[in-house]
Amino acid sequence: MRIDKLLAHSGLGTRKEVKKLLKASMIEINSEVIKDPKTQVDPDVDVILIAGEALDYQEFVYFMLNKPAGVISATEDDMHETVLDLLQPSDIVQEPHPVGRLDIDTEGLLLLTNDGALTHRLLSPKRHVDKTYFAEIEGLVSDKDITQFKEGVTLADDYVTMPAELTILSIDEETQTSKVEITIQEGKFHQVKRMFHAVGKDVLYLKRLSMGKLTLDPHLELGAYRECTKAEIAQLKA
Length: 238
Ligand code: URA
Hints:
This protein has about 240 residues and is of the alpha+beta class. It is built from 7 helices and 13 strands. The chain has helices at about 5-10, 15-25, 90, 115-125, 145-150, 190-200, 230-235, and strands at about 25-30, 30-35, 50, 55, 60-65, 95-100, 105-115, 130-140, 165-170, 175-185, 200-210, 215, 225. The strands form 2 sheets. Strands 5, 6, 7, 8, 9, 10, 11, 12 and 13 form a 9-stranded mixed beta sheet that branches. The chain has a 4-stranded antiparallel beta sheet with strand order 2-1-3-4, with no helix packed on it. The relative contact order is 0.15. The structure holds uracil (URA).
């Protein structure tokens, strides 16, 4: 990779700003001052110093976000704020993208990374990565719904979903609403909402709690994010 790209990706400024650092003899590669922004560098092999300090370059970034409602799971949008707008400028230089989509009104766990291979694995329909949601439902969820979800639900477009695990947390007869947890193995568009629709119910509130082995950190406020720990990254890759 070119040294100017690597330095920019490391949060040292724009390509133009990075060029100034190079011109000012502040960058050394393997003990040699480098001024040419086109110089090729391998961060796994070469020792890169910035003003004498070693650069700790990380090719991949992994962030866990507690997505709030009203924000789009995309990298750009003309109308709405995107999940990338919630990240610090220094955290977007390496161009993370959301792994999958949550609806604009859905809250909860969203992984953001620039690791394309991991994204591909987590989203592959062949891998059936479990996604668990907490949901508030208009209507009284019943044992019949649990059975139907276990057997697969036929959606309005005749698609039969894979088995899903539905757990009733509480039922409120007075307001005719229910609180549930649901684990699905797929990630079809509006899947949870369409599954409840298929059994005559509406989702009032939806929050993703986990994706594969990655569980939403309960200390993360809505809209807040943090880097995934080494253990979390290892579990995601396992
Ligand atoms: N299912 C939905 O209906 N919406 C989401 O955002 C995620 C799963």
